[in-house]
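Troubleshooting log. The previous run stalled partway through. Resubmitting the same three chains, unchanged.
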Amino acid sequence: MTAPDPAFSPRASASPPASVTPSQRAWRRFWRNRPSVAGLAWLAFLVALMALWPWVAPYSFSATSDVQFSPPSATHWFGTDVNGRDLLTRVVYGARVSVMVALVGALVAVVNGVLWGASAGFFGGRWDGFAMRVVDILYSLPSIIFVIVLITTLESWTRQTLQARFHLGPEIVGKARLLFLFAGLGAISWLNMARIIRGQVLSLRSRAFVDASLALGATPGRVLFKHILPNVYGVIIVYATLTVPSIILYESFLSYLGLGIQPPMASWGSLISDGASQLNPIRVHWWLIVFPAGALVTTLLAMNFVGDGLRDAWDPKGRND
Amino acid sequence: MAAFFLDLCAFQTLAVVHRKTIETHGDRWLMARPFPSSGCYTLEEWNMNDKVRLRKNQRHWDLANIQSDVIDLIHLESAMTALNLFEKRQADIIWDKTLIPMELMDVLKERSYVHTFSYLATYFVRFNVTRAPFNDSRVRKALTMSVDKRRIAGRIMKAGEKPASTLVPPGAADYEGPAGLPYDPPAARRLLAEAGYPGGKGFPSFQYHSNSAKQHEQVAVELQAMWRQELGIVMEMRNVEWKVYLADQNAVNYELSRSAWVGDYNDANTFLDSFMSQNANNRTGWKSPRYDALMREANQALDRRRRAGLLQEAEKLLIVDDAVLLPLFYYAGINFYRPEEISGIWDNLVDEHPLYAVKKKRPNVAPR
Amino acid sequence: MTSYLIKRLLGLVPLLLCISFLSFWLVRLAPGSPFDRERAPASPEIERALRARYHQDEPLWKQYVRYLGALREPDAQGRAHWVGGGLLQGDLGPSLKYRNHTVNDIVAQGLPISMSLSLLAFCFAIGLGVPLGVYTAQRRGEWGDYVGSFFALLAFCVPGLVVGPLLVMGFALRWGWFPVALWTTPWHAVLPTITLGLYFAGRVARLMREGMTEALREGYIVTARAKGLSESRVVFRHALRLAILPVVSYSGPLLADLLTGSFVVESLFRIPGIGVFMVNSALALDYNLVVGLALVYAVLLIVLNLIVDVTYSLLDRRVKLG
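Second attempt completed without errors. Output:
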């Protein structure tokens, strides 16, 4: 036994038909996990809704109307806001921004964080010291200033180049801002991930199976990717799901400061922080907070169930049944 | 000398400070204890983000008439916290506009502790007159005349703000403003067509520049919808954080910019002199020798009626003929205090309330 | 061990210089100036004088050297002398927005308050998160897990912006058990602690659940079970030590985040800590305050991470420091 590799889990050979590959078996395990399937169904539904909404929506996300603060009704299922805009439409549009921001942010966090953290923990010594000091420095820099500088300087630069060189319309140029928002959020979201992965790898590196595979002549890269990372897969998934809501909420904070998305666009974060001001002892327009927050929590729950299911299905040390 | 000289003397930039203290303590002169004050209160304690404690100045010339011994000014960031503290009687007065939960004003207005009154402050939009298509006054007029200010004043602002047609709010001393541009979408469409954009065709999309705050955003959403609907033109919102907003406005680097002005003293001059060519608060790129001449002449006039006439002519040039600004609404003044517990506060146009007169009728529980 | 600690603490010095320079430079890249106001000064000379007073008109390198306190300048008599103060003497300079206050004043006044709040919130987060994580890990895939995980998720999806007002509406306004805001008696600490701690409790619970799931699958746990040890003994005596590692690596940055306060909780409950300054200084472009707070944060973060690394090696003996 060199390592707890998914392909060579202890009882793999005992499972019957040889035609079933380990990955097929993992998928089967996944489909048997009811909460994970339900979570996946919700995510699929959400993606479909986001994609199809413009064609079925009775309202535009920016159209104002005379029905200000209408509670949920047959015409406005989620009610309306201060400008008389349909909240359901805004929640669905908000999903587009938030899901994009969260996915890009989480992806950057996972890729950057895992590579940086794992290499620091695995190679140790000077590289570890250097890599972790870099994380410390980046972590200590004031993140708001960082985002301000990134967005304002890059934005005006691209605005000019895009318009001058490629004669693009203002709509496309406006979207460029979203890109910088992604970049900015991604850039500050991977640091904790790197630190946690480094800690886990540091602990795994000293296990017998690592020494064994190195002694058998495996290259360090192979040991890292094939033997160590599968063991921190669970932590990666959990931390990625922790990163998603914090990025979504950080985006709302940036939007609140005027650094994020521009009105009348909406995101779940901005809808939630708008709704939060409804929590007062005088009068509560409850739908303005319950629906956006509900959408975020449900989606997060779904992502967690899917993550858990994937992790269990592919876990090197998992039960085999 | 100008008619508002006495008012100017009472303005804070002319307050008396103790030269010697500044010379000894330099930058930290406000931390000198005992603090040399010529006012009715002296600064006893100043904790950042916490509170400022003022104590009656024992050496004040009018000591007998200072009503309260100690006044604590509580620093707050959140309007909801302010309201909660007020409701729990941990605070007796709220008189900072940013600490009023605006979206609840339609309900709060009915309560006996909420006092709203006319106030010398205007919410308006600046046009950058150096940038096409806003260098054409017909375009500026079209944009102004297609805005239903009543809707904005009534639905977004809820404390009794009145739709504005002029820059100087009604009630300014010895002054009667000109009739502003009316709300007239058909005429607005005609003007836009005359300027070369019939039905908004060919009109470039433009940016509305604002510092980010919920209320400004709500106003902008309404403006965007109105212009799209009435004129067929596309406005893009550009919310930026405060310092970028100021830097852009100072550099006249915007197309339309959200603005507001609060009167420093009760005179039309505090609003109108900002738009003279050399004034750093102009920030529109608009320079009019005629306006400058009218303003100078007005401020040299000794006769009040003649002065008022000249100022009115100047304002007409600013907001009607050249339509450099789009006035949206006049702010309302808002104070929270329970009249049965607090005395000595009187509503006034500049929202100024001398502290020496303020008194809590039921004496304070011994200050902590 | 001692030599390791000394080495890491010595490493702090270049690190802080690096952070101070980077944030010093970064904050000056942001558009706008600390002296921009809504009302323009009466004449451009006033602003020029203000800039000169705070040496904002000098080249960047000179400003930075001055900030460090390593600048020699001729005085009135033309003799060169060291400009006093500076970072090297622990002087973080005057605040550009809150004139009359130095950055040192602001930190000295706010940091202790933020620290007490944060330690309370940290204890709350660990005290709630670790047991919840262990509970859900033990019941992985059962109803207990789903319910527990749901609450953990709810805790970190619903921001303090929502939790705080809800707590105030219930416990302070309706039932009147706790004060609505301010920071004077221990009672005032209860609601802010819960608001701040709940979010982190949810995160700790998720990490703990993961750590415990991993740990329970380790070979030696299986052995311990096979020996017939009771489940609680297996969990608390053997697995916990390993299971808590992800939480331990997370607690360094967690504590640093908590120590420097929370903008939302501090402004909601009107707590005079430094969390509000962390945000407001950046928005006001208060150069000195931004750099000063970044340095305070960095010192806390690095020292806490050092503690985390040491704790790590104590919990998992296989990890060597070095």
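Takeaways: Residues 1-17 of chain A have pLDDT under 50 and may be disordered. Chain A has ten helices and no strands.
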